Amino acid sequence: MKEKTNSKRFFTPVLILVMISIVSISAINSYVNIRILKKHVQKDIEKHKKEYIQKNKEKVHQYVHFVNNSIKFKLAKMEGILKKTLRERIKISLNLAKHIYEKQKGKIPNQQIKKMVAEQLSTIRFNKNRGYYFIYDFNTNINYTHQLKKYIGKDMGSLEDFKGRKIVKLYNQVIKRQKIGFTKIYFYKDGDKSQAYSKLNCVTKFEPLNLVIGMGEYLDLAEKEIQAFVIKRFNDIKIYKNNYLFFLKLHNLNGGDGFATFIMNPNRRDLVGIEIDENYQGAKGQGFAKKMLVDFRAKGYSYTTYWYKKPNTKKPKLKMSYFYHQKDWDWIIGSGFYFDAFKQEVKNIEKSTNEYIREIIIESMLWIFLLSLITLIIAGFISVRINRTIKKYTDKLIDKKLELETAQEVAEMGSWNFDLATKELNWSKQTYKIFERDIDNFALNYDSFLTLLHPEDIDMVESAYAHSLQNKTAYNIKHRIIMDDGRVKWVRETCKTIFDKNGSPIFSNGTMQDITDGYTKSLKLQEKEKLLERQSKLSDMVELISAVGIHQEYDNLKVALERITEISSQTLNISRVGVWLYNEDKISMNCINLYSLDDKEHSSGVQLEEQNCPKFFDTLIKAKTMIIDDVSKNIISKDFEKEYLKNLNIKSMMDIPIKKEGKVIGFVSNSQIDTIKHWTKDEINFSKAIANSVSLILEIEQRKKIDLLLIEKTNEQNI
């Protein structure tokens, strides 16, 4: 007894020490791992942020310079055509001068011949009198003919364009290099000296008389056509997601009031034509215009961060924009990207990290529990009991394994494998039987496998496989397959993938089981339950209609409509159900009750005008039921898709006319938000019953009002 007592005293402190060690080591290990993980995650977020910003800066830079290159290309093409035209006209002038010179040479002085050439060329006009020849003496710079009479007979050597360059000097430099050459000057036109216009001039020298002959064409008209083309081309282009291009006309590079005017902004079309000053700010007061101008003067472009309205939203978001100074037209071309997408990615990373930390904590607690339990078992039981326990559980595992193997044989479960390196797909014989394919004649590969899937399930199956590869997890899914005769089978598919030491997937193994009978029965049972539920809801509405007919409270109609829209929305599991009635003018409709399933709230007061959606009103007045699975592909819903459906993100709709005495007085609207819904026959019939119930309640309410009026009239007569 004494030795036994000593043994117990020794056993107790050892047991406590072991337990404390297990708990301490597990806690410290978990804490260290969590700290290291958080540091790595934070570094990854910072790295990802830099990569996100750099990637998107490159994108907007690419799109802005695509526009700039388009402008350069158009200008070059325009100038090429214009140069060809001017060259041909200069050749005509040379031929005419040569003809006059050869005819009069030796008969009259050269000075008189010069005047004859000038007189002949001065009568020739092109492009509605905008195009004309000018002539001056190469040695004396004396002008012989010009559209502006004040220059005739004058020395043109001192004449400058708007950039301060001597025009005759430019012409003479061109003539020295080429027989027929081109130069661009900036000059006024039509008597307007307040603004300079770009003009392309073509000049040549008629050697026998030492005359310089030239003509030019202003580029502003052609440039305006190109500018209009560029604005039209890029106005409605979304380059990716919510990003867009915008253009401004720069008036003053130094800033000030009205330094620029918006000429294109798809996100804020109300700003087009509006001048802005250098203090123009973002949504939260950032004066980014000044920074942009400073950068323009220094390097011709600017990256600026500010808050601005995001497309399809009312709230401003943080944005970085790239502005580029297009100097040919003095345009500001800009595009940007919003940071909220990156913030959402960060939230997802943090959420995943927190979930992983919870898993670490739970796993640590499980390890503590398991290690403690093992310690207690070792300390409390002798080896014989341990051996018996091990044997007992070993026998059970063997039994379970045999049961599992037998169950697989009875279930006729097929198997498959897929080599990701060679893209080779293999099926077992049972899998071929499930798909009803000939093992010798069917060309099996991944693409042919996809053709056997139900079209509505292809994306789900591919997504499940891609997700399992990305997250290195197995999957277990149910989906449909199509037989040659059109029959549909339901199968349960499982998959587990093997990865190499670098984490790359190399081989996938899976099973395929036909579950058609059991799953089909389950679906039918669910349909019966839904039908019973709808019948129950219709029974509730009958009681509701009876209650409206019996009671006389003023708010009964509102309460009844609220209850009906709630029942319909909950039963059909759709986002919104509303009741709309014609106004007295019959050219507009008012929503008297609208229930939102997501918000659990009722509202009213929204109006539809016939002028905005004539096809919808025309269809409704003919008492036609409108069943629209996809509003983006239906001609009726196109009427008010932009102003109403897109703002609410409505994807599917079903509108049932409400009739009174055979005439349409309104409709019950059923709308599905975010996802496309395919309306079933039962759902359509249920909604028609809802519309009939609304019609009956409105009729009861009208009769109650008439009865009240009769009672009041009778009381007045009795008095």
Short description:
The chain is of the alpha+beta class and 719 residues long. The protein has helices at residues 2-104, 110-122, 167-177, 220-235, 288-299, 340-380, 383-411, 429-435, 446-451, 458-471, 516-550, 556-572, 614-621, 641-648, 681-718, and strands at residues 125-126, 131-137, 143-145, 180-189, 192-206, 211-218, 238-240, 243-250, 260-264, 275-276, 301-309, 316-326, 331-338, 414-419, 424-427, 475-482, 488-499, 505-514, 576-582, 588-596, 601-603, 607-609, 626-628, 650-660, 663-673.
Account of the 3D structure:
The protein has 719 residues and is an alpha+beta fold. Among the domains are: 236-338, PAS domain (Beta-Lactamase, 2-Layer Sandwich); 412-514, Beta-Lactamase, CATH 3.30.450.20; 534-709, 2-Layer Sandwich (Beta-Lactamase). Helix content is 50%, strand content 25%. The protein has 15 helices and 25 strands. It has helices at 2-104, 110-122, 167-177, 220-235, 288-299, 340-380, 383-411, 429-435, 446-451, 458-471, 516-550, 556-572, 614-621, 641-648, 681-718; strands spanning 125-126, 131-137, 143-145, 180-189, 192-206, 211-218, 238-240, 243-250, 260-264, 275-276, 301-309, 316-326, 331-338, 414-419, 424-427, 475-482, 488-499, 505-514, 576-582, 588-596, 601-603, 607-609, 626-628, 650-660, 663-673. The strands form 4 sheets. Strands 7, 8, 9, 10, 11, 12 and 13 form a 7-stranded antiparallel β-sheet that branches. Strands 19, 20, 21, 22, 23, 24 and 25 form a 7-stranded antiparallel β-sheet that branches. Strands 1, 2, 3, 4, 5 and 6 form a 6-stranded antiparallel β-sheet that branches.
